[in-house]
Amino acid sequence: DADVTQTPRNRITKTGKRIMLECSQTKGHDRMYWYRQDPGLGLRLIYYSFDVKDINKGEISDGYSVSRQAQAKFSLSLESAIPNQTALYFCATSDPLERGGYSEQFFGPGTRLTVL
Amino acid sequence: AQSVTQLDSQVPVFEEAPVELRCNYSSSVSVYLFWYVQYPNQGLQLLLKYLSGSTLVKGINGFEAEFNKSQTSFHLRKPSVHISDTAEYFCAVRSTGFQKLVFGTGTRLLVSP
């Protein structure tokens, strides 16, 4: 079974609809992240959470909100979806910094969202 | 703030040929450098990383990269590519002491027979 799972894997919705993307992990990591990937733009950080009570905005948080329901679950919501939010969304997890200051991020398989 | 530049959006090569994917970064502080690979319809997977020490780092699947501080580069190389190496490759940078990764725009490697 995958360590980082995302649901749904694909979603088509209409402008103005509320959408929730879910991420679950079995790695026992404290830190979780949401990124979006757009062609030619790479991955950009939307939100990140270092533990259940610590949530932070990334570089492109406008139009998004998140909820950290438990250590293992981190949801991303689009309150009112718009077409330019059409993208591939990735969840990632990591441990706190290891000795030497490094901790690998592990990525889920992605959710392809289309907003019509 | 850090930034990453991957100048080549797409690199076509023939099977068994060598390949180099270029990555340049900018940062005012010490950094860690990474290469991730994304196979079609999959998430990102860590290919290799530079944290400190030897500037030549080896990763999975025969890839290696060299950290060049004076040129602020971290180019990825493989001496002989396979069809299965067809994927998108992302260079990423993170300042020491913080978890936020900054990604480049990606380079699509297309290996043909």
Can you give keywords for this protein?
heterodimer; A: about 120 residues; mainly beta; 7-stranded mixed β-sheet; 4-stranded antiparallel β-sheet; about 55% strand; globular; B: about 110 residues; 6-stranded mixed β-sheet
Give structural notes.
The complex is a heterodimer of chains A (116) and B (113). With 116 residues, chain A is an all-beta fold. Helices cover 0% and strands 55% of the residues of chain A. In chain A, a hairpin with a 2-residue loop joins strand 7 (65-70) and strand 8. The radius of gyration of chain A is 14 Å and the shape is globular. The model of chain A has no long low-confidence stretch (mean pLDDT 91). By secondary structure, chain B is mostly beta strands. Chain B contains no helices and 12 strands. Chain B has strands at 3-5, 10-14, 19-21, 24-26, 31-38, 44-50, 56-58, 64-68, 73-78, 87-95, 102-103, 107-112. In chain B, the strands form 3 sheets. In chain B, strands 2, 5, 6, 10, 11 and 12 form a 6-stranded mixed β-sheet that branches. In chain B, a hairpin with a 5-residue loop joins strand 5 and strand 6 (44-50). Classes of the chains: A mainly beta (116), B mainly beta (113). The A-B interface holds A 4, 31, 40-45, 48, 50, 58, 90, 92, 94, 97, 100-105, 107-110 and B 4, 6, 9, 32, 36, 41-46, 49, 51-52, 90, 96-97, 99-101, 103-106.
Could you provide a short overview of the structure?
The complex is a heterodimer of chains A (116) and B (113). Chain A is an all-beta fold and 116 residues long.
